[in-house]
From TrEMBL:
Entry keyword annotation includes Ligase: no
Keyword flag Lyase: yes
Pfam families in UniProt: Allantoicase, Ureidogly_lyase
Family of the protein in this entry: Belongs to the allantoicase family.
Subunit structure and binding partners: Homodimer.
Lineage, opening ranks: Eukaryota, Fungi, Dikarya, Basidiomycota, Agaricomycotina
Organism for this UniProt entry: Cryptococcus depauperatus CBS 7841
Designated name of the protein: Allantoicase
Length: 816
């Protein structure tokens, strides 16, 4: 057997794009054994990144190198064993790179491969394992260069799961890359009976043979990265095109695409043919250069027929956002049992994407009876999966209300600034709220905040399917649902959102029905006139704040219009609670002596045991009654004299209307906008349990009420934002206005607001900026203001007073 050397200028553009780097650690390959890596680690050998020069840098053992380097004076050879991420692959080419090794490079190399016969693998990896086969004979290597070799029929036709690389006799290799085509697993000729509920497979995974066929542009990073596992580590390991070429290059006068829509594309072959259920597009680490929109097409064809193939749109042109996983269900016009072999991912007009995943079930299209055991009556039903909720996929129907771990993850157009004296990020105007009822219709007032106590409508521990029978809309008001924080001793559920656009017949357009599963950390705001299903809480109970306007007249169609859904549509709800993150009940620890420890009773106030400054206040639990002079409490247990309450016929939902009005007295020409923001609020420096807190700031909003709703804490692990740590409550400090038009220190009051209740300050009420105890909270903020977050706050929005030096407005003893 002789080795065939391949020129670099041919291999990189003509060969490499059509094979998978099966030895890469990005896929999960591992260096599992090594004879010696005294000078430089064996793990460097399979890194994705090109090797870098470390010239002039030294460690305890000598000069540093980005590669694998052994000791000198080996009489035979050094070796390394690489366990491939895929258990079965061909081996077609190897790239042995000695970059930056000059004078200490390995003089020769040799490569062996091993077939893994059992799923358990190999107990101990050694050169003595039975079955090693030479796939590359001894070859000469030079310094500081890449060496490409085509492997013979033995490597190309084998089924390999591990590689052994020899350095003869010793020295250094910067990178070793093996290229092949992972073997397709068994492809069923029949769909399983539970195909609509069974967990789908990523048909585009590189580990089962998914690969790139072609692309329109790869200026900054190659499209093959789209198929890698995980979410990457920075902007470099995605696919990124050049910036907009509008009226330039191929889109300029005389260019092949002159006056055509600006877009870039990638064609990829599925590792295995199959039916598609939904698509994931990830823009991780692309916060400012993600595509504006994307679409996905699919076809069933051989590689050489793609130019004439019939491409079917499976995801219509849809908006994308920064640093986020987006989930798209299959277009309703596509048969759920259509088999596809290739996809085309289009981005508009250009930009960077991290990953694309195609979820479905393998199915051999060559089988004439591929769907013979499929109940065609079931296929005639439209089954829509409830996918993770994101701002972009919900954009047609309304807005998503949530906090983000990174300010750059906020949806485009949402301005973010540091607020509350550096203790919070404020995500401005995530949602816009308004009403357009005919004048005189709202006898009980306009926009208001209420609460909903919703019991779980179904247990979805193993998933569930729900028939869609009814949709409703509110022509004249937006309607926001904001899950509130966790009550003591309870678990929090999730909720299902089903929405549709209005059709030309003024009824729901059922081709636009989409379903989402939202966590307790996400709220939604429906646009006026958006068709949607009524509140559907699953898994456990949830409390919500609701923001809307309504006449509250029984049967008033202007409040709520309902229509029956004639088409057979089912919503497929995934298992909840999620296996990876079951909500943990929030409970206060109890002592073994019924609330006593060391003989001291632990009552609701520990002020008698704590050091106190003169004239410090003890915060008290907040109630609708004691907070009434300053505003309103948003709670599912309002005061006994609150009578504006509705109960659902099934007894599972109780709604308390008009707990707090949304008030704005800004001049009409001020440009003020009413909306919902989110404060991701952290604990203030100096605010500690069992210590006195000096009140040095007080503020008021003369023209607007301002409500804060602590939101729930939850996550769908691996599919969205991570959950905040449990716990957290608010320390509230308020005062009445004095005769000098400043807060009157004689009227200062302090309250504790638990994380499962909200409050609304009346216009003009003096209060301390948000004070969070214990844990970070996401606070939905309902307010009207002129400022957008781009420029400094307009002075009409907020009047802030500050006491400095020895002067303080008040002192509050923070309870233990």
């Amino acid at each position: 057997m002789t080795a065939k050397s391949i020129p670099l200028d041919y291999f990189d553009p003509q060969v490499k794009p059509y094979y998978v780097e099966v030895s890469s650690d990005a896929l999960g390959s591992q260096v599992v054994a090594c004879s010696d890596d005294f000078f430089a680690s064996k793990d460097n050998l399979i890194k994705v990144s090109p090797p870098i020069s470390l010239k002039g840098q030294f460690g305890p053992n000598g000069a540093l190198y980005d590669g694998w380097e052994s000791r000198r004076h080996n009489s035979t050879y050094d070796w390394v064993i690489i366990r491939l991420a895929t258990p079965s692959t061909s081996l077609n080419y190897v790239d042995i790179d000695t970059s930056h090794f000059n004078g200490n490079e390995a003089p020769q190399s040799q490569v062996f491969a091993l077939t893994i016969l059992s799923q358990e693998g190999v107990l101990k990896w050694t050169p003595g394992n039975t079955g090693w086969v030479e796939v590359l004979p001894i070859v000469d290597l030079g310094p500081n260069s890449r060496h490409i070799f085509e492997l013979g029929a033995l490597g190309q036709q084998g089924s390999w799961g591990a590689i052994m690389v020899r350095m003869i006799p010793d020295g250094g290799i910067a990178r070793f890359r093996a290229y092949g085509i992972p073997h397709v697993p068994f492809v069923p000729k029949l769909l399983p009976a539970d195909w609509q509920t069974a967990a789908p497979t990523n048909l585009l995974s590189v580990l089962i043979g998914g690969r790139i066929i072609s692309c329109s542009d790869a200026q900054f990073s190659p499209p093959g990265n789209l198929l890698l596992p995980g979410r990457g580590f920075d902007m470099s390991d995605g696919w990124e095109t050049r910036r907009s070429q509008e009226s330039r290059g191929k889109y300029g006068p005389g260019g092949e695409l002159y006056k055509k829509e600006r877009k870039e594309w990638v064609i990829a072959k599925l590792g295995v043919q199959g039916i598609i259920q939904y698509v994931e597009v990830d823009t991780a680490f692309h916060p400012g250069n993600y595509p504006k929109e994307c679409s996905v097409e699919a076809t069933l064809a051989s590689d050489d027929q793609l130019d004439d193939a019939n491409w079917v749109t499976i995801v219509r042109k849809s908006p994308l956002g920064p640093h986020r996983q987006h989930y798209f269900s299959l277009e309703p016009t596509v048969s759920p049992i259509s088999v596809f072999s290739h996809i085309r991912y289009n981005v508009y007009p250009d930009g960077g994407s991290k990953r694309v995943r195609i979820f479905g079930h393998p199915l051999d299209s060559a089988s004439m009876d591929a769907v013979q055991n499929v109940d065609m009556a079931v296929v005639d039903d439209l089954v829509i999966p409830a996918l993770p909720l994101t701002p972009e996929t919900f954009k047609e129907y309304g807005q998503v209300i949530q906090g983000f771990s990174l300010p750059t993850s906020a949806p485009k157009g949402v301005h973010v600034n540091i607020a509350n004296q550096g203790t919070a990020f404020k995500f401005h105007r995530l949602a816009f709220i308004s009403e357009s009822y005919p004048q005189g219709m709202l006898q009980k007032g306009g926009l208001h905040i209420g609460s909903v106590k919703a019991k779980s409508k179904l247990q979805a521990g193993k998933g569930a399917r729900v028939k869609l029978e009814l949709l409703e809309r509110h022509r004249h008001t937006t309607q926001a649902f904001i899950p509130m924080g966790q009550e003591e001793g309870s678990e929090q559920g999730a909720y299902v959102i089903v929405a549709a656009l209005n059709g030309e017949d003024d009824r729901p357009d059922l081709t636009t029905v989409r379903a989402f599963l939202a966590t307790a950390a996400q709220g939604v705001n429906y646009n006026k006139g958006s068709w949607h299903h009524s509140l559907m809480t699953v898994g456990a109970d949830l409390n919500y704040a609701i923001v809307e306007a309504q006449t509250s007249m029984a049967g008033e169609i202007l409040d709520c219009e309902k229509v029956d859904v004639s088409t057979r549509i089912h919503i497929e709800i995934p298992p909840y609670p999620f296996d990876s993150q079951r909500a943990s009940p929030l409970r206060k620890p109890l002592s073994k002596t019924n609330g006593q420890a060391n003989g001291i009773f632990l009552g609701s106030s520990l002020s008698s045991l704590l050091p106190r400054a003169s004239h410090s206040l003890d915060p008290i639990p907040i109630t609708p009654e004691n907070f009434k002079p300053f505003g309103h409490i948003i709670t599912t247990t309002p005061s006994s004299n609150h009578v504006d309450t509705e109960r659902a016929p099934d007894g599972l939902t109780v709604k308390h209307n008009r707990l707090a009005p949304v008030v704005s007295t800004y001049p009409q020409d001020s440009g003020a906008v009413t909306g919902i923001a989110v404060f991701r609020a952290t604990k203030k420096v100096g605010l500690e349990r069992s210590r006195v807190f000096d009140v040095r700031l007080m503020e008021r909003h003369p023209y607007t009420s301002q409500a804060f709703i602590p939101m729930g804490k939850a996550e769908w692990s691996g599919k969205g934002e991570e959950a905040l740590s449990v716990g957290g409550e608010l320390l509230v400090i308020v005062a009445e206005n004095g005769i000098d038009d400043r807060p009157d220190p004689k009227t200062v009051r302090s309250f504790l607001l638990p994380g499962h209740q909200g409050l609304s300050y009346a216009p003009g009420v003096w209060h301390h900026p948000v004070l969070v105890l214990d844990s970070t909270l996401d606070l939905a903020c309902i307010e009207t203001q002129i400022a957008t977050g781009v420029h400094d706050t307009d002075e009409r929005d907020c009047e802030l007073l500050e006491w400095q030096g020895d002067k303080v407005f008040a002192r509050v003893l923070v309870p233990k």
